[in-house]
Design the sequence.
């Protein structure tokens, strides 16, 4: 018995589950495990005190017994986590139980004069499909619970094997990131951005590459959010800045460097200091560095964001608004914040030749940008049609696979040391295409 709540404790629950498993192995009966966790219990506990938190847990234990209505056993796993073991319940049975439990939590709890509104999340796993033994079944119910929390709480989610695959991948990536820099698994590629008027390379964008020893190459769009989640994004960004600035210091002086800065890093007051230290260490002049941010940084705390943008500009850096056209794309951002460059997203360019509406929006962006003295980059140029469109509409710059894919540091440095512009690139690319077709 758990002394606080009067229901079985973790040990008793595990014994019971193992016993059921042994019996079931012969009969091949179903057994369901529902792992339940109160949403934001810590906040409740911290705000109204542990005494009331404890009483809430007792009431929850009673509520669960009532909701279960003899369809299984309630146990307290620890903290605010409860486990329901339901012999004989198949998937539909378990989902019905979960729905009943969630239904009970729709009412408020009255405890010592406090009215508490509490919700819960549940993860469901069912033997024999979801686990071969008690431990595996529990582990998978826990995984499903994690997913329920991730999907927005106050819900029940059933385990699936594809969930497990995603989890394993996430786990491998999370542990891999911790040692990737030390083990030199990360590198930067650089993709030129061409000036449409002169045909010359105006800037090169640093793009993170990671080859995981087992999973192979992991795209930055997968890697960056995970690094943000586990608090390693600052370390990675510092490395990117150091490596990119060192590379750019070897390039011709009229070629800039573009570096993507994740919104999480943008929120840290340290950013200007970090940037300055890398510029000093590599001797790269501030005017040659452009930081690219996506509009999500503009959605939080406007005065602070603007102060940060101004701080960065004081250093003499350039700032670009990346992926414009993917999010809110409010035209008011363009006048409210001090950007030097707007990069119009690749998804926009993809449909530009078929969508008159998109063309109208792009013309409006270009007009506004010109009025406000900002440069425009067309991202994701893959075809000659897109390139002529970009140059006819008045974009200042273009970037894309048609012109040059992202290439390793040594290669971009070599290319920049030779005469290399839109013309040579395009004839090179078409020769490669002809060779491929031949
Ligand atoms: P982004 O900043 O918009 O970078 C451009 C992306 O478009 C790159 O993808 C590039 O390889 C890809 N691209 C270039 N030309 C074309 C084209 O013609 N067609 C298409 N469809 N795509 C093209 P990549 O390298 O996978 O990077 C994806 C995103 O990950 C970047 O988008 C950026 O937001 C983020 N990212 C990359 N490196 C870093 C980094 O060092 N730090 C941070 N915070 N984010 C990074
Ligand atoms: Mg970018
Ligand atoms: Mg972009």
Sequence:
């Amino acid at each position: 018995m758990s002394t606080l709540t009067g229901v079985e404790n973790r040990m008793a629950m595990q014994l019971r589950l193992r016993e059921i498993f042994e019996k079931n192995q012969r009969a091949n009966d179903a057994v369901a495990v529902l792992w339940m966790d109160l949403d934001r219990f810590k906040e409740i506990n911290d705000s109204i005190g542990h005494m009331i938190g404890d009483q809430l847990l007792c009431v929850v234990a009673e509520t669960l017994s009532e909701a279960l209505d003899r369809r299984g056993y309630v146990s307290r796993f620890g903290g605010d986590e409860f486990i329901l073991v339901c012999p004989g319940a198949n998937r539909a049975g378990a989902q019905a139980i979960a729905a009943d439990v969630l239904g009970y939590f729709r009412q408020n709890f009255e405890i010592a004069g406090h009215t508490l509104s509490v919700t819960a999340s549940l993860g469901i796993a069912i033997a024999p499909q979801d686990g071969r033994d008690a431990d595996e079944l529990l582990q998978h119910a826990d995984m499903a619970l994690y997913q329920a929390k991730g999907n927005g709480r106050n819900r029940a989610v059933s385990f699936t094997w594809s969930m497990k695959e995603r989890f394993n991948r996430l786990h491998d990536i999370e542990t891999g990131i911790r040692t990737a820099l030390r083990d030199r698994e990360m590198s930067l590629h650089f993709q030129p951005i061409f000036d449409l008027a002169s045909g010359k390379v105006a800037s090169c964008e640093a793009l993170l590459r990671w080859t995981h020893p087992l999973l192979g190459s992991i795209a930055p769009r997968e890697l960056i959010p995970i690094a943000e989640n586990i608090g390693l994004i600052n370390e990675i960004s510092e490395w990117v800045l150091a490596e990119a600035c060192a590379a750019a210091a070897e390039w011709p002086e009229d070629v800039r460097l573009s570096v993507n800065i994740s919104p999480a890093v943008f929120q840290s007051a340290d950013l200007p200091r970090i940037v300055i230290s890398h510029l000093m260490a590599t001797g790269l002049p501030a005017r040659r560095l452009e930081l690219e941010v996506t509009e999500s940084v503009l959605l939080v705390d406007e005065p602070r964001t603007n102060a940060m943008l101004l701080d960065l500009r004081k250093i003499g850096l350039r700032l670009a608004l990346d992926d414009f056209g993917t999010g809110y794309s409010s035209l008011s951002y363009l006048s409210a914040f001090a950007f030097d460059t707007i990069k119009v997203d690749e998804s926009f360019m993809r449909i530009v030749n078929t969508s008159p509406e998109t063309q109208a929006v792009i013309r409006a962006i270009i007009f506004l940008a010109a009025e406000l003295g900002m440069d425009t980059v067309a991202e994701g140029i893959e075809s000659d049609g897109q390139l002529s469109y970009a140059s006819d509409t008045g974009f200042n710059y273009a970037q894309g696979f048609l012109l040059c894919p992202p290439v390793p540091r040594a290669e971009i440095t070599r290319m920049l040391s030779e005469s290399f512009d839109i013309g040579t690139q395009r004839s090179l690319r078409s020769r490669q295409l002809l060779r491929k077709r031949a």
